[in-house]
Amino acid sequence: MTDIILLGPPGAGKGTQARRLVEDRGMVQLSTGDMLREARKSGTEMGRKVAAVMDSGGLVTDEIVIGLIEEKLRGATGAGFIFDGFPRTLAQADALGALLGRLGRRLDAVIEMRVDDAALVARISGRYSCPDCGAVYHDETRPTRVAGKCDDCGSENLVRRADDNAESLKTRLMEYYKKTAPLIGYYYHAGDLFSVDGLAAIDEVAGAIANILDQSRVA
Length: 219
Ligand code: AP5
Prior knowledge:
By secondary structure, the protein is an alpha/beta fold. Helices cover 47% and strands 13% of the residues. The chain has 9 helices and 7 strands, in the order E-H-E-H-H-H-E-H-E-H-E-E-H-H-E-H. The chain has helices spanning 14-25, 32-40, 45-56, 62-73, 90-102, 117-125, 166-180, 182-189, 202-215, and strands at residues 4-7, 28-31, 81-84, 109-114, 127-129, 136-138, 193-197. The strands form 2 sheets. Strands 2-3-1-4-7 form a 5-stranded parallel β-sheet. Strands 5-6 form a two-stranded antiparallel sheet. Helix 4 packs parallel to helix 5 (90-102). The longest helix has 15 residues, at 166-180. The protein is globular and about 45 Å long. The structure holds BIS(adenosine)-5'-pentaphosphate. BIS(adenosine)-5'-pentaphosphate binds at residues 8, 10-16, 32-33, 36, 53-54, 57-60, 65, 85-86, 88, 92, 123, 126-127, 136-138, 141-142, 163, 172, 201-202, 205. BIS(adenosine)-5'-pentaphosphate is lined by residues 8, 10-16, 32-33, 36, 53-54, 57-60, 65, 85-86, 88, 92, 123, 126-127, 136-138, 141-142, 163, 172, 201-202, 205.
């Protein structure tokens, strides 16, 4: 059982690497962004509130997000969890530690994906994805083999996210530096922090993460 966090700003490549770990190691991806995108489709009052916050680039309340993760973890088993986009605040980090403790599990590694803001703008503005299977693409660095068709599941419903625009990205980055970046110090002092160069090519980043999982105490 290996439970890890992928930590990094919007566009760092967390989702891309999480999918690789699911394919390569059979781990379970827990993306709060995906859970919230699902919740906003519900059309409920809560879904509408979530949609407005996400589109503005702000963070959804700790209460809602921790509730979603708690629900997913209830009775969960598996080769290991990849927390993707969670935790994003110190309160979420404390809650995750407590939730894992109750399940008799603990975090094995927190992998910080280091990137610079200029690269993030280029990544976010070129991103599109498949809503049917979750595959993530990019106009320049990872286009689909056939234009408009998902390589993995053949879907032709490829979409761009409503929050992938310059205005929202500015807010998302500010939220990251104010509320999420302090988690780097938090997990460093807990002895759980590892870092990878998120600016490297996708395969190289995947190799660096694999090395951490294989060579550290989490092997
Ligand atoms: P979320 O869905 O988590 O978005 P995010 O953290 O902003 O991260 P992204 O999905 O934008 O980026 P990523 O790091 O996964 O990069 P990707 O792999 O796609 O959250 C969305 C919103 O939901 C938040 O703003 C907030 O409102 C809310 N929310 C979610 N969780 C929350 C929480 N815990 N608390 C409160 N609110 C929460 O890659 C990006 C692009 O780059 C892709 O096109 C990809 O192909 C390309 N790429 C990836 N890696 C590389 C590489 N190495 N080289 C070149 N290109 C690359």
